[in-house]
């Protein structure tokens, strides 16, 4: 095999061309929740009059008591923790598959693995939108795939799509299953046989070009698997969406995904060099993979964001970068949300964005504080001193402050200089540093927040997040108006601003 850059891939490297042992097993339900977010051993639970987060995968885990979180959900969300809403158990019976023996015979002829096991079909019948999880918890999933197909390569995907086309079978591509757009759901009125094409077994690094800093992966590779493999070779892709642990490369392409470190590495459309996709009319595959072509249209941008409606993404060439010499977290405190927004605008004007920069409002700050585990005397003293400094020395109101979390990556010299420039701009807007530890905790907390929705549903609280994009001069007004409007129907709103607006809403009571 030769790379499309005219260079041979790194054949001697044992990481290239081999099937990767994924963090996520083929039978996903062995590791992941069937009716909620994330790992089965990681969840918020209320036990012995305390709220805890189970498992040891995250910093707040290990069944450590979260006393402040209990107080928070009772006071702010008006939750009665004695009234738990238990969802329906995993079904024991499932709808019979819509038959299409000709299609199955073709799969067997080509040696392509498939299953019609009811549990495997149900697990892949949805994404992670609120209505998907609510339907699972209440037993209202009305249509599930009839067959789950596990192709091993691009060529096998061609065979699956051809067989489906010849036999009038619907094909739904499925990667990590984290979609919130409904693209993984089966139309309830669909009477044809539905084949769910699971790309998880297509997760190889096909080649890597270290000189030109590009690599080719099969589309089914999960984000954390991809990053682990390139890091072994001294590189990073730098793409970290909130779903990084569970979403796939093909899914990032299909949903035009954005990552938390997009300021440095770009969004997925900036990272992708070339995409190969199987359609009912053939294979869409550019003959070259170069930085830029002046003639158009650019087929990559037709595929990006297509949500699986045009075909199945099978292989993706992406940009990689050498691992940064230094990675440093940071955090800033501002007197209010508006000051934080103006700080972000100035940073953007000067093109000084670090790898990640996110502003959270006071409600989300209070929420994050509530997730702190119970600490000893030193922890209490530290918190008291921090509060005293913010209120006494800086004269800020703890019920108005906003927080910015930062991630810097690069050489030690560049990171230090970058940090100094950012902090200088922050000072002009009334902000000051709150340390690297708080920044790291704030960044990692992003991966835990999704688990709170499952806890909320157990106590009849609806929680969901949505994103939008807005011009800078309307940013603060949009945030204020959204909060005011939704609060009128008894919602609690968290705001998290980067280059887009991230909003999480919890229905209270």
TrEMBL record:
<dbReference type="InterPro" id="IPR036318">
    <property type="entry name" value="FAD-bd_PCMH-like_sf"/>
</dbReference>
<dbReference type="InterPro" id="IPR016169">
    <property type="entry name" value="FAD-bd_PCMH_sub2"/>
</dbReference>
<keyword id="KW-0285">Flavoprotein</keyword>
<comment type="subunit">
    <text>Homodimer.</text>
</comment>
<keyword id="KW-0274">FAD</keyword>
<dbReference type="Pfam" id="PF02913">
    <property type="entry name" value="FAD-oxidase_C"/>
</dbReference>
<comment type="similarity">
    <text>Belongs to the FAD-binding oxidoreductase/transferase type 4 family.</text>
</comment>
<keyword id="KW-0443">Lipid metabolism</keyword>
<dbReference type="InterPro" id="IPR016164">
    <property type="entry name" value="FAD-linked_Oxase-like_C"/>
</dbReference>
<protein>
    <recommendedName>
        <fullName>Alkylglycerone-phosphate synthase</fullName>
        <ecNumber>2.5.1.26</ecNumber>
    </recommendedName>
</protein>
<dbReference type="InterPro" id="IPR016166">
    <property type="entry name" value="FAD-bd_PCMH"/>
</dbReference>
<dbReference type="InterPro" id="IPR006094">
    <property type="entry name" value="Oxid_FAD_bind_N"/>
</dbReference>
<dbReference type="InterPro" id="IPR004113">
    <property type="entry name" value="FAD-bd_oxidored_4_C"/>
</dbReference>
<keyword id="KW-0808">Transferase</keyword>
<comment type="pathway">
    <text>Glycerolipid metabolism; ether lipid biosynthesis.</text>
</comment>
<feature type="domain" description="FAD-binding PCMH-type">
    <location>
        <begin position="141"/>
        <end position="323"/>
    </location>
</feature>
<comment type="function">
    <text>Catalyzes the exchange of an acyl for a long-chain alkyl group and the formation of the ether bond in the biosynthesis of ether phospholipids.</text>
</comment>
<dbReference type="Pfam" id="PF01565">
    <property type="entry name" value="FAD_binding_4"/>
</dbReference>
<keyword id="KW-0576">Peroxisome</keyword>
<dbReference type="InterPro" id="IPR025650">
    <property type="entry name" value="Alkyl-DHAP_Synthase"/>
</dbReference>
<dbReference type="InterPro" id="IPR016167">
    <property type="entry name" value="FAD-bd_PCMH_sub1"/>
</dbReference>
<keyword id="KW-0444">Lipid biosynthesis</keyword>
């Amino acid at each position: 095999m030769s790379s499309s850059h005219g260079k041979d891939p790194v054949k001697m490297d044992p990481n290239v061309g081999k099937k990767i042992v994924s963090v996520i097993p083929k039978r996903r339900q062995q590791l992941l929740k069937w009716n909620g977010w994330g790992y089965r051993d990681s969840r918020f639970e209320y036990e012995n009059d305390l709220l805890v987060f189970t498992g040891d995968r995250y910093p707040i885990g290990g069944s450590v008591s979260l006393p402040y979180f209990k107080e928070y959900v009772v006071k702010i969300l008006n939750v009665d923790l004695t009234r738990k809403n238990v969802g329906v158990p995993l079904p024991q019976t499932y709808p019979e598959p819509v038959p299409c023996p000709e299609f199955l015979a073709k799969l067997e002829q080509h040696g392509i693995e498939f299953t019609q096991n009811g549990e495997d079909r149900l697990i892949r019948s949805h994404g992670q939108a609120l209505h998907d999880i609510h339907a699972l918890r209440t037993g209202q999933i009305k249509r599930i795939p009839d067959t789950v197909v596990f192709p091993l390569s691009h060529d096998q995907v061609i065979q699956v799509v051809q067989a489906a086309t010849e036999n009038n079978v619907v094909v739904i591509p499925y990667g990590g299953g984290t979609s919130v757009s409904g693209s993984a759901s089966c139309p309830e009125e669909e009477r044809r046989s539905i084949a769910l094409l699971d790309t998880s077994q297509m997760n190889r690094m096909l080649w890597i070009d270290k000189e030109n800093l590009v690599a080719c992966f099969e589309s089914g590779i999960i984000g954390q698997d991809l990053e682990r493999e390139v890091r072994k070779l001294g590189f990073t892709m730098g793409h970290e969406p909130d779903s990084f642990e569970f979403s796939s490369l093909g899914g990032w392409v299909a949903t035009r995904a954005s990552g938390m470190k997009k300021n440095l590495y770009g969004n997925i459309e900036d990272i992708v060099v070339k995409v190969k996709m199987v359609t009912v009319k053939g294979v869409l595959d550019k003959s070259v993979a170069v930085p830029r072509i002046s003639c158009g249209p650019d087929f990559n941008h037709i595929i990006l964001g297509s949500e699986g409606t045009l075909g199945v993404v099978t292989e993706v060439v992406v940009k990689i970068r050498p691992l940064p010499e230094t990675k440093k977290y940071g955090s800033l405190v501002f007197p209010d949300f508006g000051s934080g927004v103006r700080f972000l605008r100035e940073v953007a004007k000067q093109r000084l964005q670090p790898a990640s920069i996110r502003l959270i409002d006071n409600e989300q700050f209070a929420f994050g504080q509530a997730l702190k585990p119970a600490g000893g005397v030193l922890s209490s003293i530290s918190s008291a001193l921090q509060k005293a400094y913010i209120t006494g020395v800086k004269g800020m109101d703890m019920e108005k402050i906003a927080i910015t979390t930062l991630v810097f990556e690069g050489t030690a010299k560049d990171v230090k200089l970058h940090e100094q420039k950012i902090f200088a701009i922050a000072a002009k807007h009334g902000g000051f540093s709150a340390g690297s530890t708080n920044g790291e905790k704030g960044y990692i907390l992003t991966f835990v927040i999704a688990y709170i929705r499952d806890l909320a549903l157990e106590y009849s609280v609806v929680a969901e997040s949505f994103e939008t994009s807005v011009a800078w001069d309307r940013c603060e007004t949009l945030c204020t108006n959204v909060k005011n409007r939704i609060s009128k129907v008894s919602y609690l709103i968290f705001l998290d601003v980067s280059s887009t607006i991230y909003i999480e809403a919890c229905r209270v009571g």
